[in-house]
Amino acid sequence: MAYRDRAVRRATPLLQPNEQLQHIFPAEAGAHPILARGFGLLGWLLFAEPRVIAVTDQAVVVFKANLNGTQPKEVLARLPLGSLQGQPSGLWGKVQVDGKRMYVHRKFHKEVNAALAGTATAA
Question: What is the mean pLDDT of residues 73-98?
Answer without folding.
Answer: 94
